[in-house]
Amino acid sequence: MIFGRSERGKPPVEPVTLKILVAGGFGVGKTTLVGAVSEIRPLRTEELLTEAGRPVDDVSGVEAKNTTTVAMDFGRITLREDLVLYLFGTPGQERFWFMWDELSEGALGAVVLADTRRLEDCFAAIDYFERRAIPFLVGVNRFDGAARYPADDVRRALDLDDHVPLLMCDARDRESVKEVLVGVVQHAMAQAAQRRQTVGT
Amino acid sequence: MSADGQGRSHWFDDEAGPVVRPYAMTRGRTTSAAQHRLDLIAVVVTEPHADDPEADPTLSPEHVDIVELCRDTSQTVAELSAELDLPIGVVRVLVGDLVESEFVHVNRPVPPAELPDESILRDVINGLRAL
After folding, report:
1. pTM, 2 dp
2. Contacts of B128 in chain A (CB under 8 A)
3. Domain boundaries, chain A
4. Which residue of chain B has the CA closest to A86?
5. ipTM higher than the 0.90 cut
6. Cα distances (angstroms) measured from residue A92 to each of A74, A76, A87, A122
7. At the topology level of CATH, where does A16-200 sit?
8. Could you report the per-residue pLDDT of B48-64, keeping only the tens digit for each?
C-alpha cells in the first residue's frame, strides 16, 4: 500500500466548543437572533421521531405519519481559532422536550426570547430552565408596533425570580444580540460562583 | 451497502419520505458499536493516517463523506448533520463506526453539569465584545 498523502498539512485545530440555547415561542425571532451574530447563515439540523421512538413524544394530530422531523437551527461564532460558540434555536413545539434535554446538556446557558404581545409563549421555556437550574436570561424582543412595557412590568408578568436578568433587545441587531449573549455568560459565571460558595460553606 | 441502486423508482413520491430511508445508511442501527453518545457540539477530526477511506469496502459513501469533511477542518456533529443533510441520529451512528475503525477521533465538549473554566468564560465574553 502506498501512503501517498502522508505529507498533508498540519492536522486541523480541535477547538473547545460551547453552546448557548435560544428558546421561546414560535415566531418570536429565535432564528433571527442566531442569524444576527452567526458567521454562517443559520444551518438546520434534523432529528427523526419514529413510532418506536421515545416514550415522551406526543404525536397527537400527526397519527398518520410514521416519522416526524424535529428541526433545529443553529449558528456559529468563532471567538478564537480554538474557541467556538454555537447557538441553537430550540424546537418550538413543547412535545419535543426530549430534544431540549439533549440540547441543554452541557449548555453554558440560555436566552429565552419573549414577545410582549404573547408573553405566555415563553412560560414553558422559563419553567424548563428554572427546574434544571440552567442559567438563563430573558430577552424581550422589541417588535415594531408592539407596545413597550417597563422591564419591571414584564418581569412581574413573567413571575421571574429576582436573580434572573431581563434585557430589552432587538433580535435583528448584532450589537443588541451580542449584549444579550454576554449577559448570558456573565449570569452563568455568577451562578457558578454562587454555587461554589454554597458548596464550600 | 451502497445507497443507490435498486428501489429508486418505487419510493419516489413524497409519501415515501426520502429516497433512501435515513437509517438504511446505518443498516438499521440506532446506536453504534462504540456506544458513543455524541453531543451535538462534539468535534469530529479525521485521523492523519486515514488516507484513503474510499478503498475501505466496509465504509459507505456517507462514511467517506464524513472522513473527507473532517480532514482539513474539524466539524461538529451538528455541522455534519446539516452539511450531509442527515438526521443527527444517523450521523451519530456513522461517526461511531468511524471512531471504532479509527478513521476519526472525537473531542467531547465539557461534560454536562460541569461549567467550563472561568477563564474560558471570560474569553467568551471578551470574544463576543470584540466581534
Report:
1. 0.83
2. 77, 79, 85, 178, 181-182, 185
3. 16-200
4. B41
5. no
6. 14, 20, 15, 10
7. Rossmann fold (3.40.50)
8. 988 889 999 999 999 99
